Amino acid sequence: MSRNLMRGAQVLMALLTVFVFSVGFSAPAATQNVVATIAVGDSPSGVAVNAGTNVVYVTNLRDNTVSVINGATNNVIATVGVGVAPLQAAFNPALNRIYVVNAGSNSVSVIDAGANAVIATVAVGSQPTRLAINPATNFIYVSNFQDNSVSVIDGNANVLLANVNVGFRPTGLGVNPGHNRIYVANTNSRTLSVIDGNTNTVIANVPVGIGPEALVVDPLNNLVYVLNNGSDTVSIIDGIANVVVSTLPVGAQPLAGILNPITDVIYVGNFAGSSVSAISGTTNVVFATIPITAGPTALAVDAVLDRIYVVDETTNIVAAIDGVSNEVLAIIQVGNQPTNIAVNPVTSNAYVVNSDDDTVSVISGR
User: Which domains does the chain have, with CATH numbers?
Assistant: First the structure.
């Protein structure tokens, strides 16, 4: 298949995924603000969205629960007890399940989204911090910061299949479903571990920059972008050869990244640089640097509206960036110490978790 055909297929699938069928749809002028503030549990940290049912899941770090929010009414409809210190959540639409990383009890809680109840608790490695789902296999991958491993969970059976040894202090995770490859950023060993999802073995350890903490996978181009927090660069790895093909200077302390799969642009939040770098996935060059009020700590993208949301926990704001003009459209005041954000691609609402005042701010996208 030609690259143009592949790009067309990717765009079509992205549009179908978010149930957008209109022709000639354009992004509205941004007059965005917070339309609701929802009280949740103690110290919310992670957030995941079920776009099909318009339900939002928020992990509450200090009271060991997940708040379930009805996105239509902005009300909490259930509170689900999970493990100790739940950090992150991810939703698997194929199985209608939410997976929650419990850093304090070294486990993953599996929640049935239909019943809003925990149906399994899977023991993993020591101090799990991140997880990623391969939607093609329904396998879940968990990076275990303390014991330098990645746990592999069969999402169909909710059982642990393997603990794969990787580099020192693994953090960021990413999956390429088409090639069944899992990528792990090892912060203290300055490497990217590549795991073959068919064998659950490491097939390469690729040297990158200093302090890699996050990564972005571009499945179409089969490239991996590793954010090197200590060297202010992004290493670009060829997913076939498992070698670095380019190293791009970005802003100071790149900390968070995200891909717009429709435009094939990678956005990198530079914490100390108070900026966002925009990288073309086609040319692999930084084509724009967007100044932000202070340090970006989390990013989310609305691919259909081509809008990027940047969380700044130091000044309690979210910046909305237009992906066409690469300009800040709005600065939105949210709660105290916002730590994470997720977008419902159907409604275009963004959900910001505010850890210090135990709330979720709902930003209207349209």
Answer: 3-9+46-316 (2.130.10.10)
